Amino acid sequence: MQNLWKRIIGFGFMVILLAPGAALAAGEKVASLVMVADTRKLTGWEAWWANLYNESHLYFTIITVVTIPVVGLLFGVLADIIMGHIGIDLKSRELAEH
Amino acid sequence: MDWLYVLMPISGVTIFWPGLIILGIGVGIIGGFFGMGGAWMVTPGLNILGFPMAFAIGTDIAHMAGKSLISTMRHGKFGNVDYKLGIIMLVGTIVGFEVGAQMIMWLERIGQVDKVVRYLYLVLLALIAWMVFADVAKKRRKEREALARGEEVDKLATGLEWHKTFHKLKIPPMINFKVAQIYCSAWLPITVSFLTGWLAGILGIGGGLIRMPMLIYFIGCPTHVAVGTDLFEVMISGLYGTATYTYKGRTELMAALIMLVGAAIGAQVGTVATKYIKGYGIRIAFGLAVVGCALSIVLKLLAKQIPAYGAIFDGSATVLILGLVAAMSLYIFVRMVQGAKQEVAMKKAQQ
């Protein structure tokens, strides 16, 4: 039983790792299009951010993918604290369909 | 009034930022309440605010991942998330999604893919709406019959009970999902998630709209657990979608973060509202949202069929969707405030 689970989990990870490549390979071959952010009007962190976009989509992606859950978590905790002040029970609910 | 507009560093467009917050609040409420990402509502909204379509989809998915995380945290505390079920379904969802995506590439080579996808989406939405309202009608009939016998229906009783038939399949390994209160073959959630993932891949949507009713009707989750578990899946698939779209250079992180400010509030309101609305209340509202979504697709189809009135039909579809978001958000918000007031008053009376 344990072996079966190991195989299922292993297969799951394999699919997660290989699927994006397989999907991209199956995609329609299109002429490569280069999108560039216009940094001329930007200053400070905005200029840095737009430059990062122009220079490396990989680093740009890594920072985006890390930022979104971190900010989500921060906002979630903050909203939690505010909701806690309303005085309602936020840890249980009655499970009822009607 | 320049301060109300902000320049997006990547797409180079100037956006009315309060509009992003309002959109975030609306979709946060609906997402937290129904357990879906809501791409079908956000994308036209972002487009109206001035985003090019290419950036609207990526930005929507990025904000969806963050918003679903906030809702999942809250639903998790309520005990509405079955993480074991969610992780098992994730495998089926990803495999199904990729198979669906490959299939759509194949359909694209044949041609007419747009039309096929829209009609398929429409049929699917009609089936979901039918399922929801048939379930509601059957549950009411059961209640009437029980009342006639002088009995009371169990508070967890449902109308349609297809899941009971599926639970009879005893193909190993059998798994007990404690939170969802289900004991069934692991192949049931895997198969259902594969099918919903496959459909989502073909339709090019996140899948929350399909997965939530399937969790209820095919797997047998109580409504609240279906909503919470679905959000957990939306969160993970949202992060995956964020990575792929961002790598293609189609995400405006700044807009996604501004939307998250509103979504953080909305997600809390939507999630807490599920505490005060019983399962069938959620199901009926969900059915109405599905009908609204289907109507907007009909209008978009009409826009393509009758190009002379295309702009009118397209505009009507957008107005319908945004009107639906506004009306539903308001309804959920009012119910949440009423419920919270009642709870606080009861607590005070007990002291």
How does this model look, in words?
The complex is a heterodimer of chains A (98) and B (351). With 98 residues, chain A is mostly helical. Chain A is flat and about 55 Å long. Chain A has helices at 2-26, 44-55, 57-84. In chain A, 66% of the residues lie in helices and 0% in strands. By secondary structure, chain B is mainly alpha-helical. Chain B has one domain. Chain B contains 12 helices and 4 strands. In chain B, strands 1-2 form a two-stranded antiparallel ribbon. Chain B has a two-stranded antiparallel ribbon with strand order 3-4. In chain B, strand 3 and strand 4 (182-185) form a beta hairpin. In chain B, helix 1 runs parallel beside helix 10 and helix 4 crosses helix 9 (223-247). The N and C termini of chain B lie far apart (50 Å).
Task: Give a brief description.
Chain A is an all-alpha fold.
Q: Secondary-structure map with pairings?
A:
The complex is a heterodimer of chains A (98) and B (351).
Chain A: H1 2-26, H2 44-55, H3 57-84
Chain B: E1 5-7, E2 14-16, H1 17-34, H2 39-49, H3 53-78, H4 83-110, H5 113-148, H6 162-167, E3 174-177, E4 182-185, H7 187-203, H8 208-219, H9 223-247, H10 253-276, H11 279-305, H12 310-350
Antiparallel strand pairs in B: 1-2, 3-4
Helix pairs in contact in B: 1-2, 1-3, 1-10, 1-12, 2-3, 2-12, 3-9, 3-10, 4-7, 4-9, 5-11, 7-8, 8-9, 10-12, 11-12
SSE arrangement of chain B, N to C: EEHHHHHHEEHHHHHH
User: Structural class of the helix and strand makeup of chain B?
Assistant: mainly alpha
Rough outline of chain B: globular
SS-derived structural category of chain A = mainly alpha
Strand tally of chain B is: 4
Radius of gyration of chain A: 22 Å
pLDDT < 50 stretches of chain B: none
Total domain count of chain B: 1
Give the fraction of residues assigned to helices of chain A.
55-70%
Number of strands of chain A: 0
| Percent helix range of chain B | over 70%
The major pleated sheet of chain B works out as: 2 strands, antiparallel
Low-confidence stretches of chain A: 20-31
In whole angstroms, the N-to-C terminal distance of chain B is 50 Å
Number of helical regions of chain B = 12
Note the total helix count of chain A.
3
Q: What is the chains' assembly state?
A: heterodimer
Classify the beta-strand content of chain A into a percent band.
under 5%
Mind telling me the C-alpha Rg of chain B? 21 Å
Query: SSE order of chain A, as H and E?
Result: HHH
